[in-house]
Amino acid sequence: MSDLLENVLLPVASEEDARTSARALTGHDYGTVTVVHVVEKADGAPDKAGVEQREQAAEEMFEAARAVLGDVETDVLYGSDVAETIFDAAAERNSSAIVVTPRGGNRFVQLITGDVALHLVTDTDRPVVVLPDDETDTDPPDTDE
Amino acid sequence: MSDGELAKDIGPLAALTIGVGTMIGAGIFVLPRTAISQAGSFAIVAFTVGGAIALLTAFSASELGTAMPKSGGAYYYVNHALGPMFGSIAGWANWLGLAFASAFYMVGFGQYIQQIFGLSTAVGVGPISLDPVKLIALGGAALFIAVNYIGAKETGRLQNVIVVILVGILAVFTIYGGLQADPSNLPPTAGFSDTMAVTGIIFVSYLGFVQITSVAEEIQNPGVNLPRAVIGSVLLVTAIYALVLLTMAAAVEPGFINGLPTEQIAVVEVARILLGPVGAIAMLLGGLLATASSANASILASSRINFAMGRDGIVSESLNEIHPRFATPYRSIAVTGGLILLFIAAGTVETLASMGSVLHLIIYGLLNVGLIVMREGEPAEYDPDYTVPLYPVVPILGTLTSLGLIVFLPPVAIGLSGALVVGAVLWYFVYARSRATKEGILSQFILSRSDEMPDAAVNAATGVQPDGGNYRVMVPLANPEHETDLITLASAVAKQRGGTVVATHIVSVPDQTALAGAAERADEIDETSERLLASAKEDAKTFGVDVETRTIISHKSFEAIFDAAKSHDADLVVMGWGPDSHGSPGRAESAMDELTEAVPCDFLVMRDRGFDPSRILLPTAGGPDSDLTASIAKLLQAEYDSEVTLLNVADEGERDDAEAFLEAWADEHGLADATLRIETGDVETAIESAAEDATLLFVGATEEGLLRRLVGGSIVLDVVDDVECTVVLGEKHRHRGLLERLF
């Protein structure tokens, strides 16, 4: 096992994302995993969806991740800046790396939703590992680990 | 700060602005002309009365909000207190009421845009001519729906700024107006019914405060901030409205407002006189901001209500899917948006406003009733930080004034709303009853006191209870000694079926004791009940199944079991029976109706000599009742890995036939791995000798109504008494015709 994936923080944004990211991670040697979902807060105003509703959705994401990774630690985080909240969580847990899988989407969608992945990569203080989604990767390059 | 606190980021001011921002909308910017022309200077009274009615409900909403800071607000409280039938009414009324109100706000928005850009002629496309106001309203609504569909956290913060600007504009307006006010300008006053009619129309200006409770879970320190925001926003808004109306009535010459051309907006024209063009522009801007923020807040709130309704099974959970990328409840917003567009296209300003008002008044009425039920029912977990003043006067007045004001609204709106209420009740019975998971405090209260309450109330309460659509195993408990064994059997079955155990303490009192007298011993009964049901809960918990508990006081205890099984929609009853169980066998009255009645659902009657499912003996000669015992044996086998022996007693010389039958039967019932045993001779002797090796004997009733007679004591089965292991008798419910199933 490389030290890089010794203590992974795996942020997930949707049930599909949880499945994809978890599946991508299983292709590698890794140590412990903490799956987290950030409930984006409006910071002093009503959120776009109720907190209970978002927590319920997070639970479904964790279920999807557990279905692939087994019993892993999970946590719901709250913050108005998704990327910052993930960094704080990684610092708190002393994570060796933050693991994400690309979610695609065109420029317009990224513009209106804010590109969290880009923010993660550009402002990070620790390794961010971007793993390809195994399923969509129809022609995987033969690389040696 | 803990994570739970991080989720709560709405401070006291932001909470207040949710209420103020939602309320200050099209109501005050569009309706003053109607109000003044119909009620004269009593328009001020109409707005004040509206505020007073809203305030009464605001007290109740505050108490409920601090007791239950949950997503969904008013709907949640009504559903929790009064049960899912009223929950269905409140949910639909709240959801559609918000859609109607949003449509009204957007029409107001359309009027302001039209004023600003001076569009006045109708746009004609062929024979269809569309009012430009409606076109703008449709466009504006589509925009705000899209904003919420995509979800922008910035809109929330913008709301706070908008509210401050709005209050500022209106404050300047009233101060200037106050300086130029002259009492001689006041138009004549109107009579009571005109004033009340205007109150009904303008009540749409007071729909926002309950929305604060729908985000209660996000408010910091809700125990303090929620009541302050709810009550404070109503007081603030009422004061603003009264002052604005006073200004409009007293600062301009009488007849000015009535004399305005219809396309002009009264508030804007009064501002133009008082403050010049700047005043008119500020007022136009204010109208735009106010209507937009009201609509935006209402669309946001409606998805919370959908979520809460979905969680309780009143609507499909699929409505509340969260968008994978936008993280918004996009389906709920799309459906609400569709309704808003439809309402804008179909309704007039007056219809939209009055529909919004009537539907909200229905919820306010139910909300106040809900508060009374919570107080009287005293569920253990009800512990509000804030309590209404002068209980029960305030919630009673709140109920009466809210429902009473409906009378003064246009008949069309009352009729349509009545139809919606009927529709919501039908919806509950046709769609939601089998799916709803929550029982209201009201029906728990009535059913737990079945015998103190009038029969009609009890029947009504059981008749509308949700059945949850899942497998319900009722366990009547009387003797604490057998509680654990009965609950264990029931929980094992419920666990395998993914169902619920309903532990019911049947308190039997002698006929000589009036039930009212029994109620005097209520404390004593309560204590026994509590202990018995608590240990039942514990026992069932070890299986991880859901448990509900009930207490029933009755004269004839096993009759009560049959009735309770029917009224609680039990699928299976697991009861104990023995010399010291329910009722004394052989009582004359017990035999009365035995001939006509079979069991209302599947029944297992346990003669308990210790529950040990390791070696199960199941004698069978086929038939529906041994189908039931076979399925239970199979469930126990799955749970406990039991050894199952099937026994058939055949005549001498028919052993081969018997074996073939038993093999086929075992196969058919998924018990192919069971040991097969064929005996000959007397059936009872054969069973008794086979039972010597068994720990648990299952006996299927051989005929319909057998169990009833057995428990009633009119027949005796020797085998039950002669064997040494625990005996479980099963009788299957025979499905009858549709009519009989219904009643």
From TrEMBL, chain A:
Residue ranges of domain UspA in the record: 7-132
Pfam family, one: Usp
Entries under SUPFAM superfamilies matching the protein: Adenine nucleotide alpha hydrolases-like (SSF52402)
Protein name stated in the entry: Universal stress protein
UniProtKB/TrEMBL annotation, chain B:
Cellular compartments annotated: Cell membrane
Keywords assigned by UniProt, alphabetized: Cell membrane, Membrane, Transmembrane, Transmembrane helix
Membrane topology designation: Multi-pass membrane protein
GO MF, one annotated term: transmembrane transporter activity
Transmembrane segments: 12-31, 43-61, 81-105, 112-129, 135-151, 158-176, 196-217, 229-252, 272-301, 330-349, 355-374, 386-406, 412-431
The name this protein goes by in its record: Amino acid permease
The organism of origin for this protein: Haloarcula salina
Residue ranges occupied by any UspA domain in the UniProt entry: 472-607, 615-728
Superkingdom of this protein's organism: Archaea
GO cellular component, one term: plasma membrane
Major localisation: membrane
Keyword Phosphoprotein: no
